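Example 3.
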Amino acid sequence: MSNQISKNVTGSIVLKNVNLLGQQVTDILLTDGVISQIGPNLSGNQQVDGTGCVALPGLVDLHTHLREPGREDAETVLSGSRAAAKGGFTCVHAMANTNPVADTAGVVEQVWRLGQDAGLVDVRPVGAVTKNLEGTALAELGAMADSAAQVRVFSDDGKCVHDPALMRRALEYVKAFDGVVAQHAQEPRLTDGAQMNEGELSGKLGLAGWPAVAEEAIIARDVLLAEHVGSRLHVCHLSTAGSVEIIRWAKSRGINVTAEVTPHHLFFTDEVVSSYDPIYKVNPPLRTAKDVQAVRDGLADGTIDIVATDHAPHPAEDKDCEWSAAAFGMTGLESALAIVNATMVQTGKLTWGQVAQVMSINPAKIGRVTDQGQPLEVGSPANIVLFNPTVELKVDPNQSESGSRNTPYRELTLPGQVVATFFHGQPTVLAGQVVSY
Ligand SMILES: [Zn+2]
């Protein structure tokens, strides 16, 4: 059976022979942007062959850098939306460290409208916690929450809200509109000039070390602050075994905290830094094999709630230089699902149903996005990804939809391909390619 589909579908689309959450082969009928039927032998105006594909709810990323406004040479809302759709996402949260910073209703509404215009994924702006990310005065949190963008996630990501009094006030403030503060946990005084994970290897390579305690000390402080004020805390990109232990302890106390891990922290150890290739330079740094094991185990047992990409596009001139001068960050939207397949599914640590939890349902809940991350059942919005986990694909950065090429998986062969993505019933990706309207 071949895919017979045109753009701007007005009638119904049937997804044939898909493996629903890896549990049951069936057909799914999409009508008017909603899942209207699930069962065998369905027909629709148009059809997509899903043979061999797992069907998951459209992925939701809580941590994406889209760079617009200000660094359109690295990424735009449109190019980032295309990369997101190609990776199976139907919703991304755009981080606030743009230029100007997304610290007012005006800027978050601008980003939100750019997302609407691109029309490929739901772009949910993240609001800055502090004015201009300076860590000295709270940004206009209420105005951003009340804006058309309806911001619920606030973060100074890229920087840590290191002043405990300011962090406390932010946690108190967001309670009024059920918001959450997403902390980039990095004690700046412990990471001055840091270049890679602190350990034997950093000594050997002569690169300034970034100790695990710089992350763990902030997380420990913040879970206690969240408990003290009775607010909701989210911890970005957990990278150390100690951080997993602190979150596990906090949850056992009933503290309202959630945590994320990135695909690259699930996949790489700091050994790759031995090449001095700045493609592996990232914040927080890649850690040891023991840490990788701990974040995988934490994701498997629910201590870590979600996978978030921390997609951080940079143009070549910011990455193709010596290690100490290179920018921190790597792209990740297009490869996220294949990496989770490689590290968590093929290793038997997560089922596809659990992948749906950590990459769609849970991040939508944390971001309070009500029409995303819904179970694949009749009546749910038709946000769906079809992923073939058995296709082996070599990563070619020049095939990326992102405005930047800094993928750390270049030249690697990864397991799985996003075959199709549907956003409110409309195909945004077919046969592995973004649909151009
Ligand atoms: Zn960060």
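The chain has twelve helices and 19 strands. The radius of gyration is 21 Å.
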